[in-house]
Protein 1
Amino acid sequence: MLSSLSNERAFIAAIIILILCFSFVISIYIGLKQTKIRTKDEVFGDPERTLGGWYWTVTGVSALLLAWFYFSWGIGRAFFPEAANEMCQVAKVETAIASITATLPINTRHYKSTTLIRRNTEQLKILQSKIPTLVFSDSEQIELIDIISKSREMIGVFSSQKNQSIESQTTFKNLSIGFNTLSEELRKGYQGFEVTQEALEQPKWGTTLIEIPHQKASY
């Protein structure tokens, strides 16, 4: 019996959510109706009105349980079980590729290194324009400006393509070719792919039998 209830937990949760929604709406309707009826009643000597009425209790309990179902993904699992499973899978994929997205320009216009260079250059510009002249002497100000200029030159040395070695240029070119090849493979879809034994032995990712396929091209 417990196993059957576990298998039907999404259906049971859906029924409970619908009952809570119905109770929430009906309790508010009854509460507003009772408030309108008792507008002219005496406040004193009306213990039910003093307690607020059972309908407002139902309203509060229903609202709390609905909020719990919403933030615990209960509604998603009950009415959209496949979507909830896909959300778990997407979250795990995003975690797995976090190190890649931190380096490559994914969801951003610039590489991570480019963003840091732009930020550091802007900070040096602000620092030079706002040197406290009343705190440092003329010679100290000249020394500080010289340090800022050398810092800019160092940024240029590491970011300029002219200053890259032949070995690093070759490595970047090979990486570019590899990414282009991988992009072409991904655009072809799953045709010609088959599941490997190693992939079948991996634990499941999501909460249902619908999982992300672990596939490898067969050549």
Protein 2
Amino acid sequence: MLTKEQIAKRIASELKDGYYVNLGIGIPTLVANYIPEGVEVILQSENGLLGMGPFPFEGEEDADLINAGKQTITTIDGSAFFDSALSFGMIRAGKVDLTVLGAMEVSDKGDIANWKIPGKMVKGMGGAMDLVASAKNIIVAMQHVNRAGESKLLSQCDLPITGLGCVKKVVTELGVFNINDQGFEMIEIAPGVTVDEVKAKTHGRLVISDQLKTIEI
């Protein structure tokens, strides 16, 4: 199975030169550490930053530089700071080419639930609603099952919906899945994982690509 870092590295391979990219909280933040050599992207954080760099090394953190998840970050040459109104203006205007989000659940129709668990304290939806409504392309980085061992890739989300029909691709510790009219199409499988294991842990519609290959990590 893939580690969280390997999930992030696989998603980083989707980045294209010149992309403006928003990274959500959790596994998505790790993508900043694996941008392919020769690919130049601009990372956007909805709390008001263009030009986010990788995480700082221990002892080099600046408490005044944080991302939307309140994690300390670094900047790159040419970074720009601005207020959240301008930041969300960029998002709502469709200026972000790719958004990478974490999720609690994803349906085989591309619906995503990632902001609230009923009965548990929540600080607010943050930028999730704007990002899923406006992003040109959304990739989800998530664990395939929850702590109880239950599938998070479902035919229908049970938790409160963040966005409908917006997710294009999901990367988990088990594989890479495109979402299309057939449901979850597994196009890559993690080393050491079997197709039967993926089937057992996926409760939404699942099809196996004729060109299925092993993830290169």
